[in-house]
């Protein structure tokens, strides 16, 4: 067969195959045209799920009557004129082939009126034979497009259509996405004369916007939605997330993404969302979100596919990382606040919950003991403030220096911290603590409280091993080590042990690493990049594998210790520290400040008996407890026991 030029009619039908796949494709193109026409209300009517009729009406700007035939011609549009326009597209449509493609496979009527015209005009076409006549019509300002008998002239295409229910579900999804992308427009969807979707425009009010969003995307977004907002030079993010579902909960992935007002389906962005959810949840889980993304139109190419739902970013990796960090940080922040709220409701992290107002000191010695510890710490605080001491307000125990008496009654200071302050002992306070705490703590009176605070029977015959005696208060351990007794803050002890373990692994060169599924890119100053470039072996020893770019650092592997944390926040602080101590790091000597920073990056947890026992088992020397400063202090049990014995004898 010789090469020949295809007829216009045949070319239009071939082009229609790319644009018009099913009724939902027609609805999508017509809705986009209505939005571009600056409509404030759009109504879509269907019969037989669009197989018999699709009508889209809007109150937009309308089309001048002399341009109506041109609107149905291929490659005719009012939205772009030059190549420069194609590089920064702000409208939903721009290809100029939607109406022509739809008209090629249907019986189409286009009716429109502008505000400057006295009445409306319409044109009608059937199939690819387009020779429309302009006729007067009755119509308000705006445009209506009626598409009847879709694929009437291509029976093979019509046979591939699915059931009415399936086709309508595709249409509804397109309609919902368009309505979500344009909260400032009224949308109405009718099927066979029955209203299916009807949402009003919402401007400004965030609560009303959330109600409108949940009406379209699902009621869960109103009940459990997490607001997300992030700003970056390459991408601005806003919208609503649903938290990762429980393991046993059945949830379906539901992702709505909009870029510069355009509904999109992008693999890079979807991967970032899935990675953010998996990092926070610690497992793969369905993503459920409605996110509005904005970027410079010059930085994204939307002319990828005739459907216009695929995009290509010029800085795809950077966009990926910005979205990942924004979503992950929002999820972590919300889950952290939920955890705090649950703890507060149950009293698990509130020391005051042990100060039972309905019980006297004699009935609740444990609660009164904790209260008196706080009181004693408060008195020491006042003293340190008066004496001009340098007291760290972040120390939760409030006891920088604990003064105890040794076995023969001499005063000795246990100065744990380099910033600790020498304080006098409060004899009256110690005696009061003794009377209220006394022998009943050993009798297990605290067992009337939550089971996690039970006092476990322990073998006291081995003086070397650290033993967990009790959890007398939230996040507080009572530990015996070499016949010495300490009250220790569990979270601080755990961080210290993790820090020491990391330092030991750096020394041995055995730091466990985690390979990122997508490289994490961090923008950095040239001075820092040059400093790291001068000593690459230091960061390798610390557990990092990276590539240095001109203005950024690309992380391929990180220490397993940092898996699931806010990488941007921790690396921004840690890299200068690592660069400054690069020489020591290269020799296996990790700066303590760096190890402490990594250990503290993990989310705090509530420690129960089993978890606490695991921590205590790692204590190899009392020096570890003594190094905790104000977050641990020693109890002079021997002296209290002597005083108690003397009081009983008296």
From TrEMBL:
Gene3D superfamilies: 3.30.230.10, Histidine kinase-like ATPase, C-terminal domain, MutL, C-terminal domain, dimerisation subdomain, MutL, C-terminal domain, regulatory subdomain
GO molecular function: ATP binding; ATP hydrolysis activity; ATP-dependent DNA damage sensor activity; mismatched DNA binding
GO biological processes: mismatch repair
Key words of the record: DNA damage, DNA repair
Region (Disordered), start-end ranges: 346-365
Chain ranges of the DNA mismatch repair protein S5 domain: 213-332
One GO CC term on file: mismatch repair complex
Superkingdom of the organism of origin: Bacteria
Keyword DNA repair: yes
NCBIfam families: mutl (TIGR00585)
Homology family: Belongs to the DNA mismatch repair MutL/HexB family.
PANTHER family named in the record: DNA MISMATCH REPAIR PROTEIN MLH, PMS, MUTL, DNA MISMATCH REPAIR PROTEIN MLH1
HAMAP family: DNA_mis_repair
Protein purpose: This protein is involved in the repair of mismatches in DNA. It is required for dam-dependent methyl-directed DNA mismatch repair. May act as a 'molecular matchmaker', a protein that promotes the formation of a stable complex between two or more DNA-binding proteins in an ATP-dependent manner without itself being part of a final effector complex.
Name of this chain's protein: DNA mismatch repair protein MutL
Species assigned in the record: Succinatimonas hippei (strain DSM 22608 / JCM 16073 / KCTC 15190 / YIT 12066)
């Amino acid at each position: 067969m010789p090469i020949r030029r295809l007829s216009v009619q045949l070319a239009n039908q071939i082009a229609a195959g790319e644009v018009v796949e099913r009724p939902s494709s027609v609805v999508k193109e017509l809705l986009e045209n209505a939005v571009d026409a600056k409509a404030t209300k759009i109504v879509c009517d269907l019969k037989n799920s669009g197989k018999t009729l699709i009508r889209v009406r809007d109150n937009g700007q309308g089309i001048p009557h002399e341009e109506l035939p041109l609107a149905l011609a291929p490659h005719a549009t009012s939205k772009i004129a030059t190549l420069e326009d194609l590089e920064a597209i702000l409208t939903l449509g721009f290809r100029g082939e939607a109406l022509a493609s739809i008209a090629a496979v249907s019986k189409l009527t286009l009716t429109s009126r502008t505000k400057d015209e006295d009445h409306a005009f319409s044109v009608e076409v059937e199939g690819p034979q387009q020779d429309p006549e302009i006729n007067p019509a009755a119509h308000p300002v705006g445009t209506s497009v009626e598409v009847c008998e879709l694929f009437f002239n291509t029976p093979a295409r019509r046979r591939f259509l699915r059931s009415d229910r399936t086709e309508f579900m595709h249409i509804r999804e397109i309609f919902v996405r368009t309505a979500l992308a344009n909260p400032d427009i009224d949308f109405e969807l009718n099927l066979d004369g029955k209203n299916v979707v009807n949402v009003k425009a919402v401007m400004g009010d965030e609560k009303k916007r959330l109600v409108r969003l949940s009406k379209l995307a699902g009621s869960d977004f109103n009940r459990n939605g997490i607001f997300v907002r992030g700003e970056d030079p390459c991408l601005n993010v806003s919208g609503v997330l649903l938290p990762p579902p429980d393991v046993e909960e059945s949830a379906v992935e539901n992702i709505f993404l909009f870029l510069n007002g355009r509904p999109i389906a992008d693999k890079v962005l979807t991967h970032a969302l899935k990675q953010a959810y998996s990092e926070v949840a610690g497992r793969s889980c369905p993503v459920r979100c409605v996110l509005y993304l904005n970027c410079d139109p010059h930085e994204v190419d939307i002319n990828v596919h005739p459907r216009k739902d695929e995009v290509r970013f010029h800085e795809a990796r950077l966009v990926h990382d910005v979205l990942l960090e924004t979503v992950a940080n929002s999820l972590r922040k919300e889950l952290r606040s939920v955890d705090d709220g649950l703890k507060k409701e149950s009293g698990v992290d509130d020391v005051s919950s042990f100060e039972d107002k309905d019980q006297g000191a004699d009935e609740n010695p444990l609660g009164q003991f904790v209260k008196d510890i706080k009181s004693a710490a408060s008195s020491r605080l006042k003293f340190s403030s008066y004496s001009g001491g340098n007291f760290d307000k972040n120390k939760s125990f409030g006891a920088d220096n604990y003064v105890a008496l040794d076995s023969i009654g001499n005063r000795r200071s246990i100065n744990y911290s380099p910033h600790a302050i020498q304080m006098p002992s409060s004899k009256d306070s110690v005696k009061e603590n003794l009377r209220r705490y006394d022998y009943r703590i050993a009798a297990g009176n605290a067992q009337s409280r939550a089971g996690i605070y039970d006092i476990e029977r322990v073998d006291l015959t081995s003086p070397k091993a650290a033993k967990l005696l009790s959890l007398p208060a939230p996040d507080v351990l009572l530990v015996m080590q070499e016949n010495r007794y300490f009250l220790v803050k569990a979270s601080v002890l755990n961080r210290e042990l993790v820090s020491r373990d990391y330092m030991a692994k750096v020394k041995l060169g055995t730091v466990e690493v985690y390979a990122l599924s997508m490289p994490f890119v961090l923008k950095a100053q040239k001075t820092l990049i040059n400093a790291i470039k001068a000593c690459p072996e230091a960061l390798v020893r610390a557990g990092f594998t990276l590539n240095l770019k001109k203005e950024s650092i690309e992380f391929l592997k990180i220490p397993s210790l940092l898996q699931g944390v806010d990488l941007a926040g921790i690396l921004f602080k840690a890299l200068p520290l690592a660069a400054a101590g690069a020489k020591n790091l290269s020799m296996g000597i990790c700066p303590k400040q760096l190890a402490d920073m990594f250990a503290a990056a993990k989310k705090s947890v509530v420690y129960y008996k089993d978890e606490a026992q695991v921590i205590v088992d790692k204590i190899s020397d009392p020096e570890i407890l003594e190094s905790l400063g104000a977050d641990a202090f020693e109890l002079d049990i021997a002296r209290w026991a002597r005083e108690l014995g003397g009081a009983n004898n008296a």
